[in-house]
Amino acid sequence: MIISWTLHRLRADLLVLRNVVAAVRARPVQWVALWILVTFIGCALFADMLASSQPLLLYFRGHLYLFPNLFHPAKLRIYDNELLLTYLRPGDWAVLPIVPWGYNGHDLSHVLSAPDAAHWLGTDSSGRDVLARVLHGARVSLIVGILSVCVLIVVGVTMGTVAGYFGGILDVILMRLLEIVHSIPTILLLITLLAVLSPEGYGAVVAMTVVIGLVWWTDVARLVRGEILRVKELDYVQAARAQGAGTARLIFAHVLPNSSSPVLVSGTFALAAAILVEGALSFLGFGIPDDMASWGGLLNEVRSNVEAWWLALFPGAAIFATVTAFNLLGEGLRDALDPHLRT
Amino acid sequence: MLRFLLRRLLLMVPTFIGVTLICFLVLRLANADPVTTGLEGAISGRQVSKEAILHLRHFYALDQPWHIQYLRLVRRLVTFDLGTRWQDGRPIAKVVGEALPITLMLSGISLVIAYGLAIPLGVFSAARRGTRRDTTMTVLLFVLYSLPSFWVGTMLIVYLGSGQFLNCPWTHSRGCFPLQGWHTFRGFEQMRPLDKIVDVIWHITLPIVTLTYASLASLSRYMRMGMLETLRQDYIRTARAKGLGEGRVSYVHALRNALIPIVTLLGLTLPSLIGGSVIVEQIFGIRGMGFVALEAIRLPDYPLVITIVAFTGLLTMVGVLISDLLYAVVDPRIRIEGRQ
pLDDT tens digit string along B298-324? Predict the structure, then answer.
């Protein structure tokens, strides 16, 4: 019975998803936004294949290496592609990625150089390729954005459901908490938390995710609380209750699914905002450390090199495109799912 | 009205306690002894006498259990006994007193410009609904709304400030606008009052643009939405049926009701302006609250951080209160409900 019910729900969810895709397809602007996002997600997934300091395929001294850029074979110590090519003998060959520079590869003969044939988007003050860093930066931005939205939706939906469904003192406490969190300037709280944690490496990604999620759940909680207050008095919920449905079943099977579309819409907007704030924090120097690539971190370097327009233009444009695409997608979803909110 | 105000003021007390409690807990959980860390960060390499450390630990009540520490913190905040900045030993009250007016000036000017432009833009756009001009404006505002402010600020500095792309004849140095500060550092005191004003305006043009465009865009979008919503109402149809001109219908009958959502947004715009000023002050090197806060967090100087977060929190709460009061002023229905 449980399995059939789960399958039934799954099928309903798939139908909703199909409607969403159809709704997005019907709007050309949203369709373009979706493709921009698919491109960036592709960059994030295949960053190592697109830009790496190591070749994709290498035939070296009679031995074929498959994807040394991914597996980093212990026998092979390659520092960068340029150096490797000087070591190739007749008969050896290598297939290089489109961008033959890693996000941390230093090209000391091109320090802070404007875009040219060797570095299509220029280099930063340590001779690192900007295009490689923009491609790898997509990874950080999207991971932080998506995961922090997952955190804030879980926290927000839980808090909002508990407060809205059970009401009473829990509701009062939640509303006070919302007001308190709302009164603290978000950016200062985020910076303080990150400075206190002072994470390193991938810990920074985790820390940012958790911190953004834990500070920003309030909007979702407010939204879910309102929806639950509205839905729980509807006739069909009363009917389910009269039939003897338990609290858990009422919440998960009847009340929450009916509140899911506003959460989806606000989650999409939150994704844009989270990517924006990740950029801002890295820009201020409190986010992703310098040895990882991030769009905000690239912009940060402009502050000490105001002539380097390429350091300002490209990473900023990447943030702008991603944020705009998510905002457009959010508007499209809102129009498709929630006719009341249509402007 | 008075009772409404009193109730709101009373509700601010638990919120303020909550804000300070959260700051306190975050900082306490992070670090066992902020005094030693702070002193290490501030005056590294120099010897600090044991007595000085003991004195500071006593002042911040670090030798007491944590609930007493918290109560002492609240007492110090309320009585303005804030202590000194570790970096240079200046009183925190003085540091904040110097930084706050600058941030308030930036946010105030930005707020006035944003509202002053957003209301006519929204009305204009709604009155010409569906025309090409309306569509262009909607798209433009949407783009503005999605532009990251730290990118815009950086680009403005690169293209207008660095002097590599554009040079203006009126500047002494390269570029069109200065890169740092809200006034000229040397010789500002000796300037005549009029020159001072011109100098400040010249310095804060780029920061104000960076700070304002996003709230301008979102306010105009809300204004347009509000106008469209209002223009659909029955009494607007009555006004039209009476034979009133479209201008009078839009600007007199519809505008008053469409202003209500915009006015309530004041409470939400103020905190976002304060948050935005952190970024803008950092980009343009303006020593306001955001700049001082980041400096304090970098050091780290926890008492200063707590003070700043608490005061910006208070400022936000006052902003929300003002917006609630304005709401009551604009919408008589709220006042009547409050009286009953």
Answer: 877 777 888 888 888 888 888 888 877
Q: ipTM score here?
A: 0.86
> Looking at chain B, which residue has its C-alpha nearest residue A178?
B15
Which pLDDT value is given to residue B31?
63
Is the CATH number of domain A2-47+131-342 1.10.760.10? no
Which of B107, B143, B150, B211 is the best residue to mutate to test the A interface, defined by the most A CB atoms within 10 Å of its own CB?
A: B150
Note down the domain range covering B54: 20-78
Do B197 and B116 lie in a common domain? yes
Test A299 with B147 for CB contact under 8 angstroms.
no
Residue B2 domain flag:
no
B189 CA to chain A: closest CA distance, Å? 28
Read off the tokens for B21.
């409690």
Determine contact, residues B142/B127, Cβ cutoff 8 Å: no
Burial of B7 (0-12, 13-18, 19+ CB in 10 A): exposed
Q: Which CATH number does the domain housing residue B264 bear?
A: 1.10.3720.10
- Rounded distance, CA B88 to CA B91, Å? 9
Mean of all residue pLDDT scores within chain A: 86
B169 in the same domain as B42? no
Interface residue A179 vs chain B (CB under 8 A):
yes
Q: With CB atoms and an 8 Å threshold, state whether A284 touches B274.
A: no
Amino acid (1-letter code) at residue B68: I
Q: Rounded to the nearest 5°, which phi and psi values hold at B232? A: -80, -10
Yes or no, beta carbons of B151 and A319 under 8 Å apart: yes
The CA dihedral of B75, B80, B84, B88, to the nearest 10 degrees, is 150
Residues of chain B positioned with their CB less than 8 A from the CB of A191: 278, 293-294, 297
Give the distance from residue A273's alpha carbon to the nearest chain B alpha carbon, in angstroms. 9
Q: pLDDT at position B171, please?
A: 66
pTM to 2 decimal places = 0.88
| A185·B275 Cβ contact <8 A | yes
At A113 the three-state DSSP class reads coil
Query: Apex CA B192: angle with CA B188 and CA B195, to 5°?
Result: 75
Reply yes or no on whether the pLDDT at B74 is more than 80: yes
CA distance B6 to B309: 25
Asked whether the beta carbons of residue A302 and residue B158 sit closer than 8 angstroms, the reply is yes
Tokens of A284: 């201020």
Mean pLDDT (chain B) is: 82
Is B179 within a domain? yes
A188 touches chain B (CB under 8 A): yes
Please report, for residues A57, B24, B34, B53, B62, the alpha-carbon distance to residue B67 in angstroms, rounded to integers and kept in the order given: 63, 10, 16, 21, 11
- Greatest C-alpha distance within chain A: 83
For residue B312, being part of any structural domain is answered with yes
Q: How many CB atoms lie within 10 A of CB A331?
A: 21
Q: A307 vs B18: CB contact, 8 Å cut-off?
A: no
Do A316 and B154 lie within an 8 Å CB cutoff? yes
Q: Which of A141, A173, A176, A192 to mutate to test the interface with B (most CBs of B within 10 A)?
A: A192
A230 Cβ contact list (under 8 Å, min separation 6): none
